[in-house]
Amino acid sequence: IGNGYSEEILGVNSKFIAGKDLDNNENFIIGYYGWLVEERFDWEFIFKVAEAYKNIEIQLLGYAISDKMKKKLNNYSNIKFFGIVNPRELKNYIVKWNVGIIPFTERKISKGSDPLKIYEYIYFGLPTAVKGFDQYKNVPFIFYLNNVNDIQYLISEFNTKEKIQNFREKYKDEIEKFLALSNWKSRVNILLEFIKGDTFWC
């Protein structure tokens, strides 16, 4: 059984809120929340993005950041670190994000991962760029990053709130189906059906 999301935690009125408070005249914002440990989070990729696209802003929310990385952030005026944020408050940031990102390192620990953020980003209606794992190729909101240059496509596709909304509308049925099968209620029901069924030890 895969990971999932909780509407109650994220906010029952927060579905598809990504980008709704965007000011189209302000910087393009790429956001991430979660674990920031160097073995998993690809800091070097984020730094390369910040260097290549100085007119965008990268917002990082989360924990497990090392003192070394905190110090290095001082070299990048377009990377903002907000620290730990309560999951119930995430919506207050995501309403101003253009794109979410999950930049994992190219390691075995990343290949088999099933990040909770995938489901939460999609619940918020956030176009999502991922790196380091590839098991979500059939999910409409997921865009795979091979290199820093791929960020340019996301900027051109989602640089206004209208474009983000139009993309959601285009894939609404597919997204709703994905979400219906990915909340924790659905996950528990799958588990209960499995428990009720015949198993190899019966």
Q: Could you give the order of strands across the largest sheet? A: 3-2-1-4-5-6
Report the biggest beta sheet as strand number plus sense, adding barrel if it closes.
6 strands, parallel
Give the overall shape: globular
The low-confidence runs, each spanning 5 or more residues with pLDDT under 50, are: none
User: Mean pLDDT, as a whole number?
Assistant: 87
Strand content: 15-25%
Distance between the ends = 21 Å
Question: Can you offer a commentary on this structure?
Answer:
- This protein is 38% helix and 16% strand.
- It is of the alpha/beta class.
- A 6-stranded parallel β-sheet has the order 3-2-1-4-5-6, with helices on both faces.
- Helix 2 links the parallel strand 1 and strand 2.
- The longest helix is centred in the C-terminal third of the chain and has 13 residues.
- The two termini are 21 Å apart.
Write the layout of secondary structure elements.
Layout: H1 7-10, E1 28-35, H2 43-52, E2 56-63, H3 67-73, E3 79-83, H4 91-94, E4 99-103, H5 108-111, H6 116-123, E5 128-131, E6 142-144, H7 151-157, H8 161-170, H9 172-180, H10 184-196
Task: Give a quick summary of the entry.
The chain contains ten helices and six strands.
List keywords for this structure.
single chain; 202 residues; alpha/beta; 6-stranded parallel β-sheet; globular
